[in-house]
Amino acid sequence: MNDELHRVTCTAIIYKENGDSDSSKKFLITKRALNKKKFPGKWTVPGGGIKVGDYANTPATREGTIWYFALENGLRREVSEEVGVDIGKVNYLLDLAIAVPENEPALVLSFYAPWKSGEVKLNDGENIEHAWVTFEEAKKYDLIGGIIEELEMVDKILTGKDPSVVKF
């Protein structure tokens, strides 16, 4: 195995106004299809693998072979494909590495962004349910490990609290 090669994946914690009188936000979570190899039936946030086609099939930004915003464009594609919505300004949250013996190692970059437009329309084969939930409501779902902590971090950021107090 080449020690420098990793699969790159991005996730998006998408949020919108709760609609209640308080200042809390609702987060979009999805339930993975039961036939998925990894985490079947678990709840998570939209995202997926970044592909060379996310940038290589578009005009280069600079000097013929340099593309800016490749990750962001790939993330926007994944969100559109998986849940059919558009997102606003993308903000970096954190990164994590996953070492899976039977697959190549993966880097997961987690971002958060406001919902911009569109009704949730799930991609067949990817997810089977979705919900807009507050951070407190999310605790009742069978989430993939680490997702609740990421939702907590974003909830703290959006309410002006210190996200560094969240423990994984």
**Using DSSP, what is the number of strands?**
8
Distance between the termini: 29 Å
Order of helices and strands: EEEEHHEEEEHH
Q: Classify the secondary structure makeup into a structural class.
A: alpha+beta
CATH topology: Nucleoside Triphosphate Pyrophosphohydrolase
Rg is 16 Å
The H-level CATH homologous superfamily, spelled out, is Nucleoside Triphosphate Pyrophosphohydrolase
Overall form: globular
Largest sheet: 8 strands, mixed
For the record, the count of structural domains works out to 1
Number of helical stretches of at least 4 residues: 4
Q: Beta fraction of the residues?
A: 25-35%
- Can you tell me the CATH architecture? Alpha-Beta Complex
Low-confidence stretches: none
**Overall pLDDT, averaged?**
90
Explain briefly what this protein structure is.
The chain has a single domain, classed as Nucleoside Triphosphate Pyrophosphohydrolase, CATH 3.90.79.10. It is 20% helix and 32% strand.
